[in-house]
Amino acid sequence: MAQELLLVFVTLAASLVGTASGFGTSTIMIPVLSLSMPLPAALLFVGVIHLCGDVWKVILFRRGLIWRLVLGFGLSGIIASYFGATFSLYAAAMPLKKALGVFLILYVVFLFVKRDWALPKTDGTAVCGGLLSGFFAGFFGVGGAVRGAFLAAYDLPKDVYVFTSGVIALFIDLTRVYRYVSGGTRIEGDLLHALLLCIPVSFIGAWLAKRFLQKLPQRSFRFLVGLFLALVGLVLLAKP
Description:
The protein is an all-alpha fold. It contains 10 helices and no strands. Helices cover 80% and strands 0% of the residues. The longest helix has 27 residues, at 189-215. It is globular.
């Protein structure tokens, strides 16, 4: 029961923060859950919650679909997430996690020093963002932060940003969850009961995030995204 309550609390907090920042729940839940369960089980558990979170984003923030952006990220992300999920079944991810943490922190520092700088808003940027975020999502479940770093270049309105992030992640998460299951990873017993309880809780977190974003000025949104990128980087560096 204690583990179930902890998972519910973590899911609620991660869904609220992950939806508001556009990253999804994985960036918070993976570091926490991997401390108490095998990484493959943590990846599948969070992958299912993250997949549900994608659906909540699409439902709650449904506006402003940019097809070229979605397809550029989504199609490349599907391919990369499949291979990333495959590699995660056999490889240790920790050295790459720390490298990702360093990259995110340096990227945020650069963005705040060079406030007017942005990646070029091209199809190539979208494809590269999809490849990197898809691979990181499949390999160790934190692709949302990488996707957020690339999407920040487009300076989208906050509702469009969250909706677009959700649609892109939906492609990627369907692929990686399928690969985890087909690779033999399973969730059973008390952990399965906790998962079924956490799914509706993730919707509550997403709904609270929408209420929060409705009151957040657009000019503050990019700062919020940058703040969470930096925090994710610090978490990845601090995790042993």
